[in-house]
Amino acid sequence: MNIVEKTDEEIKAIADLLWRDLVKNSNEGKYGEFVKNFSSSLARAMNQVEAGHQFANSELARNLSGHVDFLGIIRRGEHVTVLYRQRSTKKAGEWLGRLVLGYEDGTVRIFGASIF
User: Fold this and answer.
1) Residue 30 confidence class, pLDDT cut points 50, 70, 90
2) How far is CA 65 from CA 3, 36, 40, 49, 89, in A?
3) Residue from 7, 16, 10, 36 nearest 86 by CA
4) CATH number of the domain residue 74 falls in
5) C-alpha dihedral over 89, 25, 29, 72, to 10 degrees?
């Protein structure tokens, strides 16, 4: 199955749940829970020491607001990129959240996640 064949509504429903989990686990500094839905390639690429340092030292990564706005979906190849407007509970302003989703072994997985 290819995720790009799903409707926007189906993709948004999946992405919203995954994004909400990422925000929660980032705020709580739970690295193991944060990466649980990552694709195997993304999980291998993540340096656990570096990610742990980010959790411990990033004011933004530990204070993400639950208030986000869905901005849209971009389809490309076998992946979709879902964009969010993300806010912080401690820092003024807005950030762009990016979530790249696709299938791995029949399950939707996260192939990329970032906040700019």
Assistant:
1) confident
2) 28, 21, 28, 25, 5
3) 16
4) 3.10.450.50
5) -60
37-65: per-residue pLDDT in tens? 999 999 887 766 566 666 667 888 889 99
Rg, Å, the chain Cα set: 14
For residues 52 and 91, give the distance between their C-alpha atoms in angstroms, rounded to a whole number: 21
Which single residue is written with the structure tokens 């686990």?
25
Q: How many domains does the chain have?
A: 1
In which element (H, E) is residue 87 found? Answer: strand 79-88
Planar angle of CA 22, 43, 6, nearest 5 degrees = 60
Bridge-partner residues for 102, per DSSP? 79, 109
Q: What is the pLDDT of residue 114?
A: 92
Burial 39-52 (b: 16+ CB within 10 A, else e): beebeeeeeeeeee
